[in-house]
Design a protein that fits this description.
This protein is mainly α. The chain has helices at 2-27, 31-53. Helix 1 packs antiparallel against helix 2.
């Protein structure tokens, strides 16, 4: 469970961070900063989806 649990926890953290960035983007007054934050949030969401999709995969080859 540790590999799957760690991966799931990491994915949750990434999603939470992405949500924070989206909120910061909404508050940003500079259009370039807003877009940068939105892009980073999107990448984190994509990464978290990959993490949760590979949970328990080849993270620990000893299993």
């Amino acid at each position: 469970m540790s590999a799957a649990g760690e991966s799931g926890g990491r994915a949750r953290q990434m999603r939470a961070k992405a949500q924070e960035m989206e909120q910061a983007a909404e508050r940003a007054t500079d259009p370039e900063e807003r877009q940068r934050l939105k892009d980073k949030a999107r990448r984190l969401k994509e990464q978290s989806e990959q993490e949760s999709g590979t949970a328990g995969g080849d993270m620990n080859p000893m299993l």
